[in-house]
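Dear H.,

Thanks for agreeing to be a second pair of eyes. The structure we're designing against is below in token form, covering all 292 positions.
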């Protein structure tokens, strides 16, 4: 059984057996949980369906969060992409729209899958579902990629952190982006080593990102950071699938993320006391929501 202590272990086991990381993970989990692979797949499919629903729920143009600070951005981004007005093409525009949609569903108290957290919930579904739809990838392949994502997330949680209060937003959107990059790489035919490189590249690109929620709410800048994390996952997967390797191995990148998070001041770890939350406008918005 895996300890989920290193990416190298996941890659090594998959390579040794000549299978995908997702296949190794589902077999390991079936043994560990004393259940069947079919039952585990059904549970993951259920989560995937929740992801799909959270995407569509977030495209209500009139929806607004309880605070009144956010809402409607996903609808605007999808409209831009559907009309062919966005810069980077329909897939990229649709993926960003989906990331915003799930995040806005969360802000409106809708049902989401924390992947790995509520604050970063839009990245993984946006990446996987947008590519699945655009490339006509079978649902089963998309669902299986989530086992790879979950394994990478477990390693990061065990060796570093997935909590903004511990490691800043690099631990939340950074981890989600790494999970999505690894899953996308596998879903698009990449090797286990490529998935590991995609993970490493994604985290490196977000290394040091602080957690500075305005008014202490998971809305500003969190929702737009989900769109950014989605773009980063695409970048990392594209590079890895082209055969571009990370100079620093994934496990060492995760170690670095832990050290960077530990060195962050408390004001930049989800307290709402630093960064964007401490700006004049950030303070004004806090008063707008909570009063004096």
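And this is the sequence the design step returned. I haven't edited it by hand at all.
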């Amino acid at each position: 059984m895996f300890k989920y202590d290193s990416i190298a272990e996941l890659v090594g086991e998959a390579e040794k057996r000549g299978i995908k990381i997702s296949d190794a993970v589902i077999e390991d989990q079936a043994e560990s949980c004393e259940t069947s692979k079919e039952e585990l797949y059904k549970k993951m499919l259920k989560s995937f369906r929740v992801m799909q629903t959270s995407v569509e729920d977030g495209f209500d143009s009139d929806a607004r969060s309880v605070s009144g600070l956010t809402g409607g951005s996903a609808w605007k981004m999808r409209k831009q992409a559907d009309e062919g007005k966005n810069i980077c093409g329909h897939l990229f525009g649709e993926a960003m729209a989906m990331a915003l949609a799930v995040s806005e569903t969360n802000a409106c108290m809708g049902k989401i899958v924390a992947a790995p957290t509520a604050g970063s919930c839009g990245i993984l579904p946006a990446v996987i579902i947008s590519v699945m739809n655009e490339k006509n990838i079978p649902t089963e392949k998309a669902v299986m990629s989530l086992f790879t994502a979950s394994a990478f997330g477990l390693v990061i949680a065990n060796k570093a952190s997935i909590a903004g209060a511990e490691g800043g937003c690099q631990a939340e959107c950074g981890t989600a982006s790494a999970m999505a990059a690894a899953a996308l790489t596998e879903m698009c035919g990449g090797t286990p080593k490529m998935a590991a490189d995609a993970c490493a590249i994604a985290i490196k690109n977000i290394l040091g990102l602080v957690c500075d929620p305005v008014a202490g709410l998971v809305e500003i800048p969190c929702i737009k950071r989900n769109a950014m994390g989605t773009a980063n996952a695409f970048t990392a997967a594209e590079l890895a699938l082209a055969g571009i390797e990370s100079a620093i191995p994934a496990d060492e990148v995760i170690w670095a993320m832990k050290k960077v998070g530990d060195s962050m001041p408390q004001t930049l770890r989800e307290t709402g006391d630093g960064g964007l939350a401490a700006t004049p406008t950030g303070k004004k918005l806090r008063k707008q929501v909570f009063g004096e």
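Two observations from my side: The longest helix spans residues 37-57. The chain is about 65% helix and 0% strand.

Warmly,
E.
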